[in-house]
UniProtKB/TrEMBL annotation:
Protein family according to the UniProt entry: Belongs to the NAD-dependent DNA ligase family. LigA subfamily.
Annotated protein name in UniProt: DNA ligase
Catalytic residues of the enzyme: K122 (n6-amp-lysine intermediate)
Full-protein interval shown: 31 to 373 of 832
Binding site for NAD(+): D39, A40, E41, F42, D43, S89, L90, E120, R143, E180, K302, K326
Species of the source: Brevibacterium gallinarum
Domain of life the protein comes from: Bacteria
Function: DNA ligase that catalyzes the formation of phosphodiester linkages between 5'-phosphoryl and 3'-hydroxyl groups in double-stranded DNA using NAD as a coenzyme and as the energy source for the reaction. It is essential for DNA replication and repair of damaged DNA.
Length: 343
């Protein structure tokens, strides 16, 4: 380390400063539902830290915010739930080149091109895990730090989209279903209007309104909020004794399966074969992002084949088989600082 000299010392000091600042923002965003900077500003801090760690890999400490999932548990409000399988974040790309670099890493990891890519919208809500045993909803939890989340079962039971019992047959003994809880853009506008009329503070954005509405001590408050969910993954699948695992061999088949069980899946996903088609999808929703019912902050590209996902695996923070593409922010949300955020 000494060999790096002054540049290294400066980088180390800045990395420490950034790590502290990032963890503070995460606490405000995930636990308090009261961010004080825009997502773009937050992403810029993360990017700066990643750049420093790329230049000086010895600064990439396992405790660095770049190496773990952001979030925590508000133990005053909720009981803790240890996830049967970890909940991950997603790596971000901000340009065509960065996304193509990911595709190249996938090709190297597999030793070939993946069979297909699944493109879907990145829903700007909060991540929730639903546990079903023998087709019954037994628990719902927030992501927390990825290992341990918050028990929000009573709150989630008030959301009409989420079935208490799965439809159809062939339910596993136990399965975790992952998705995003959100408030549609139009409902968000109306909710804020009614909050202002009632002399209360409006929410800063739809993501915040969803998190603030779901993470309530009193589920009666949650019940009055226009919350919806879309599911986008499964984990910790345990078949019935003597039963089979999932018959699905791809992400898109998983969605078809979840749909037959009456779970809310997105209508916006598309399965394609080439990165050119992935870019077409990104361009299309870049132009039509406001025609979608829910707020999106980008697109998620996944390797569709489950065997290929398994081969690629995870880093400490995110799957290697998926990548988020973030659209450039549309306006500078400096006004966020002036808005008192509701909790
Ligand atoms: P992320 O939101 O960028 O990506 C991971 C999450 O995306 C997953 O947990 C998953 O639930 C969700 N997701 C949405 N649609 C999905 C889909 N179709 N398929 C799979 N997953 C999908 O990662 P993150 O680690 O939760 O947080 C980073 C985000 O939060 C950034 O946008 C960042 O700007 C914002 N943030 C902001 C602040 C702030 O202070 N403003 C603080 C922390 C984080």
């Amino acid at each position: 380390a000494a060999a790096h000299g002054r540049a290294f010392d400066t980088a180390r000091a800045r990395a420490k400063e950034l790590a502290l600042e990032i963890e503070e923002h995460r606490e405000r965003y995930y636990v308090k539902d009261a961010p004080t900077v825009s997502d773009a500003e937050f992403d810029a801090l993360m990017r700066e830290l990643e750049d420093i760690e790329d230049r000086f890999p010895e600064l990439r400490d396992p405790d660095s915010p770049t190496q773990h999932v952001g979030g925590g548990v508000d133990t005053e409000l909720f009981a803790e739930v240890v996830h049967a399988e970890r909940m991950y974040s997603l790596d971000n790309s901000f340009s065509r080149e960065e996304l193509d670099d990911w595709a190249a890493r996938v090709n190297r990891g597999l030793g070939r091109k993946p069979a297909r890519y699944l493109c879907e919208l990145k829903i700007d809500g909060l991540a929730v895990n639903l546990t079903y045993e023998h087709g019954r909803l037994v628990r719902a939890a927030t992501r927390g730090d990825g290992h341990t989340g918050e028990d929000i079962t009573a709150n989630v039971r008030t959301i009409a989209d989420i079935p208490a019992r799965l439809a159809g047959t062939g339910h596993p003994a136990r399965v975790d279903i992952r998705g995003e809880v959100f408030i549609p853009v139009e409902a968000f506008r109306q909710l804020n209007e009614s909050l202002v009329e009632a002399g209360k503070n409006p929410f800063a954005n739809p993501r915040n309104s969803a998190a603030g509405s779901l993470r309530q001590k009193d589920p009666q408050v949650t019940a009055q909020r226009p919350l919806h969910m879309l599911v986008h993954g499964i984990a910790a699948w345990q078949p019935e004794d003597g039963g089979e695992g999932t018959e699905a061999s791809s992400q898109s088949e998983v969605y078809a399966q979840l749909e037959t069980w009456g779970l809310p899946t997105s209508e916006y996903f598309r399965v394609v074969k080439t990165m050119d088609e992935v870019h077409d999808y990104i361009d299309f929703y870049g132009e039509h992002r406001h025609d979608v019912l829910h707020e999106i902050d980008g697109v998620v590209v996944k390797v569709d084949e489950l065997d290929e996902q398994y081969e690629l695996g995870f880093t400490s923070r995110a799957p290697r088989w998926a990548m988020a593409f973030k659209y450039p922010p549309e306006e500078v949300t400096t006004t966020l600082l002036d808005i008192r955020v509701n909790v």
